[in-house]
Amino acid sequence: MSLFKKDKQEDWFLPEDVRKQLTETFQALKEPVHLELFAQPGVNDEFSDYTAKFGADLARLTDKITFKRFDIPSDRAAELGVTASPTLCLNPDDFHIRFLGAPLGEEGKSFITSIMLVSLRMNGLSEASLSLLDPLDEERLVQVFVSPSCPYCPGQVMHAVKTAIARPGQVKAECVEMNENRELTEKHNIGSVPHTIFDSGAHDALGLMPEERFVVEMVYLKSAEELLDEGKLPGVEGLQTATGYGTIEPGAVDLVIIGAGPAGLTAGIYAVRAGLKAVVLEKSIVGGQVSLTPVVENYPGFTNVPGKQLMDIMSEHARQYVPVHEGEGVESITVGDPARDEPIVITTARGEYPAKAVILATGASYRKLGIPGEETYFGRGVNYCASCDGYLYKGKSVAIIGGGNTALTDALHLKNLGVNVTIVHRRDEFRAQKSLADSVEREGIPVLWNTVVESIEGDGRKATSLKLRNVKDDAQTELPLDGVFMAIGQKAATELAKSMGVKLNADGYVEAGPDMRTSVPRVYVAGDLTGGLQQIVTAIGEGSVAAMSAFEDISHPYWKE
Ligand code: NAP
């Protein structure tokens, strides 16, 4: 009997393709999963309704999932101590795993993964994490503040969920959607996501952490750096773990690709299709800078696609060929003598990968302005990722610094979210594409031309204004605001390249020929590291060329001729 022939779409909340995919995923469920939704009429009704429909649909897709709705207040809510509306609990009699706010957008993924792990009674933690968890002998409450469009958030939520499964009754994991939990968000002064609060503020951490670091900080309620300084935890620094599916153990490979943005993923596809044994190592999550781009409008075949969605499609494709290890940063590389066929050894926290060739696709990271207040108020009003943190500023005022494609794309995205946005640019014309400049004008987004930021001022807790200077007449002004987004370009991540003695050009990018070979034999480069146009399409082109050059050289080493 087919579920999809019998039922009409109007009976369902989830679209048919999503239901099909979930039905397949749920084939693997083992133990029953009990979803309990708590909602208070009049509070976040729209989100409670969404969650109720979502939960009811999941229960219709498999008999392994049950769904019940309770009011706040009610006996059951009092019994579990649930007060936030909506709150979705997974098997609340066995675990403390709660989603405060609808599991929308990116959090849909961590919610479904949580269902799978709860059903399989599997915590999914690495061996290293489990041994680091050993000393925990007290209860912990872990609250991960998230937004629906933050690509880093589900990773951090899963760390919390996994530890809650590993230590039921001891670790309480809560994923807190900040917009639907304004009071809690304000209380903890959350200014960027993911932001993790341990034991109601005993310790907190910004951003997505490697799993082992998360565990250590949760156990000791201190940063890994503090613990290292105290000499309590030798060897914790830089601990990384591979997550995700399709991973391999460290060992000899033909090719290591460092970086899982568009360049690295494409190189992986081409290398494996050419017959090379390859692996992609990524210190953070797949997708690179594109994952943080609200909308991409110049990738052929997609007129308008969120950057994260595009990279999800691309990584799904790449993983069909090549293992992609997220959360596995490269610690060092030693280049053996190619004339004697000595390998290039890539070392990570998990082990060594002796390889015949390496492709550097480490991309670029945000540039900072380096002005007073920028560090102090980072995550407390100073932001670098509009798609992650834009939601926090709905109905509030922010400035965007910069006049490039990123600044204008972010400004349009924020305006669209209902944020009052002003662009601050140091010149009198934009660097960005004309189509973006036209959209900014059409949307009536104010621009302060010829203006630089001298400092970010605040009240000690959060940023409250910018001190500005007009470069033409030196006039100084103050712009009151709730937040500021930096969009002043990228800094190429050349550290590994430099450590291998790879030649850089005068602009600080890796020098490469059209074949993507660098000055060091068997080392290739692709993507933003090469400078130039820095577009997704160029990164992809370079990734394919680098992989084919590596393949050619492994078969016919030019340095031996
Ligand atoms: P970008 O193109 O380098 O632009 C950086 C902007 O920040 C420029 O307007 C620059 O001003 C300004 N700036 C730099 N340093 C500054 C400072 N110290 N103080 C004040 N302003 C400063 O960087 P991006 O916009 O992040 O883009 C990076 C690359 O990604 C580009 O190749 C871009 O085309 C690409 N990208 C493309 C898209 C798209 O095609 N949809 C979207 C995003 C990014 P000046 O103009 O005065 O130099």
TrEMBL record:
Residues 254-543 form the FAD/NAD(P)-binding domain. This is Thioredoxin reductase. Residues 142-219 form the Thioredoxin-like fold domain. Belongs to the class-II pyridine nucleotide-disulfide oxidoreductase family. Keywords: Disulfide bond, FAD, Flavoprotein, Oxidoreductase, Redox-active center. SUPFAM superfamilies: FAD/NAD(P)-binding domain (SSF51905), Thioredoxin-like (SSF52833). GO terms for molecular function: thioredoxin-disulfide reductase (NADPH) activity. Its EC number is 1.8.1.9. It holds the Pfam family Pyr_redox_2. Signal peptide: none annotated. InterPro entries: FAD/NAD-bd_sf, FAD/NAD-binding_dom, Ferredoxin-NADP_redctase_2, Pyr_nucl-diS_OxRdtase_2_AS, Thioredoxin-like_fold, Thioredoxin-like_sf.
